[in-house]
Amino acid sequence: MQQDLEIIRALPVWSGPVSLTMLSGGITNVNYLADDGARRFVVRLGNDIPVHHIMRFNELSASRAASAAGISPAVIYHQPGILVLDYIEGRTLEARDFHDRQTLERALSVVTSCHADIPKHLHGPALMFWVFHVIRSYATDLETQESHYAKLLPELCAAAETLEITVSPVEIVFGHNDLLAANFIDDGTKVWLIDWDYAGFNSPLFDLGGLASNNELDETRERWMLDTYFVRAVTDQLLEQYHAMKCASLLRETMWSMVSEIHSKIDFDYRAYSEDNLARFRSTFSQYLKS
């Protein structure tokens, strides 16, 4: 930690002595709030994490494009392993905030802009985030690492195969792919979307399913979200594809945590997070099979 602080203080972007405070809540990266007396910044520390399909060149490109699209803070500086962003003064949202129709509408507008507007500002190579490929990769890692979850892989992989068949074919947009409540900030005037580690081209249904599952939207709010996003009443086929992708979103979050139990050095209770998400996935997948 001390070495991290020394590296940050030596960055050529500060207008004076900088004070640093570690930000809580990060479960992929280590983040600091930096104040140099003139303004405040967020400093994100993190190298590539191939096991999670995180490549920092992609995060940087997506962050710049999202800023140009007006939905994410500006990139101030970067070097390998370090990203400095403008600080947004506001409140980090919580899952229960999305149960308010107005908040959900504002957040959905940002997601819609992500899908439609970021590609207009994106330059150079970009990744695709296909959740079923990610799930297969996670399964291989869990088996190779002899995870205590290895015995669950036949069940989880069979579920993924069923879901992938239902989801296809898909429309492709540019997705955020990690729509946890903590990645939305409300500054009182607008809602911002942050943290582009997993950004990439994907089906819009993955972000919509993640938005619903991560924030525990009920069926009424889900249906309103879908009708609003697609600007029409959704068809039965699209609704079935959506529910399959929602299950896949939960499965990916579950296996992400299982893999993180092995590889992550961050102080976070991944074991409890894995168990909670596994229970939620099994419940949602059971309901999906009955529908």
How would you explain this protein's 3D organization?
- The protein is α+β, with helices and mostly antiparallel strands.
- It has 9 helices and 10 strands.
- The chain has helices spanning 2-9, 56-68, 101-121, 131-144, 153-167, 204-214, 219-230, 236-263, 270-290; strands at 19-22, 30-35, 40-45, 75-79, 82-86, 91-92, 173-175, 184-186, 191-193, 200-202.
- The strands form 3 sheets. A 5-stranded antiparallel beta sheet has the order 1-2-3-5-4, with helices on both faces. A 3-stranded antiparallel beta sheet has the order 6-8-9, covered by helices on one side.
- Helix 5 runs antiparallel to helix 8, helix 6 (204-214) crosses helix 8 and helix 8 runs antiparallel to helix 9 (270-290).
- The longest helix has 28 residues, at 236-263.
- It is globular.
- 35% of the residues are buried.
Q: How many β-strand runs? A: 10
Strand content: 5-15%
Mean pLDDT figure:
95
Tell me the overall shape: globular
N-C termini distance: 50 Å
Low-confidence stretches: none
Radius of gyration: 19 Å
**Continuous helix count:** 9
Largest sheet: 5 strands, antiparallel
Q: SSE string, helix = H, strand = E? A: HEEEHEEEHHHEEEEHHHH
Q: Level of helix content?
A: 40-55%
Structural class by SSE content = alpha+beta
Strand order of the largest sheet: 1-2-3-5-4
